[in-house]
Design brief:
Pfam families: Phos_pyr_kin. Residues 14-259 form the Pyridoxamine kinase/Phosphomethylpyrimidine kinase domain. It is an enzyme of class 2 (transferase). It comes from Candidatus Desulfovibrio trichonymphae. The chain is of the alpha/beta class. The protein has 8 helices and 9 strands. The strands form 2 sheets. It has a 6-stranded mixed sheet. Strands 7-8-9 form a 3-stranded antiparallel sheet. The longest helix is centred in the C-terminal third of the chain and has 17 residues, at 230-246. The mean pLDDT is 93.
Amino acid sequence: MLRPPNILTIAGSDSGGGAGIQADLKTIMALGGYGMSVITALTAQNGMGVAGIHAPSPDFVALELAAVLEGFPVAAAKTGMLYSAAIIRAVAPVLRERAFPLVVDPVSVSQSGSLLLQEDAVAALKEEILPGCDLLTPNRLEAELLSGVSVSGIEDACAAGEKLLDMGVRAVLIKGGHMPGDIVVTDVLCAAGKEPKILPQAKVDTENNHGTGCTLSAAIATGLGRGLPLPAAVKEAQEFLNRALRQSYNPGKGCGPVNHADGMTV
């Protein structure tokens, strides 16, 4: 029997099950990986919003990470909600010494508009996590926050991507879900020393899009952990998310999640 690759997610928990650690683990399993987790924060949330956030001590988050790395060979990892500068500084030294690909989803604001990254954590993220990461996956607002470039279209996304590459990121996928467009969503993949790749896909008309960023980054990490080159891992992840969006539904009140169980069906 072929063993699935061990994929690690370092992120916050979503009590509603649609985003964060829960979305990551569902995605990793759906795409053939074995999921492991380092939980950086607990969120009390549902489809209507985030009611509260409780973070463990940075030392405990570092202990979670040390325990996973001691017990398992990690094929790839992703970070999501890192929440505070102290937590970022607790995990960054270990991640800098990693021997596996790292995808960074710079989670800063929830789908409902709640702040998921403390203000002093933005500088720490730029200084401690971004340099050397294999792929950064910001949406438009996150790309603007990190690069300082206003993004309203493909040319702007390419310019922001170049700025982020200059900060030491090896590749960046700027997601087009928050950009104008009624029919097509266009992501832009920038890698050091290469021309940007324009990656359009059909827009899915659904309000159940909770956890899309978490799902995409976890899917890319899983592809990398299975040995796919970056462009192929990105393509597989985009297709998985698009299918999961087409099969999305609302299990409760407010914004529903993508359907990870049906993301593999055509």
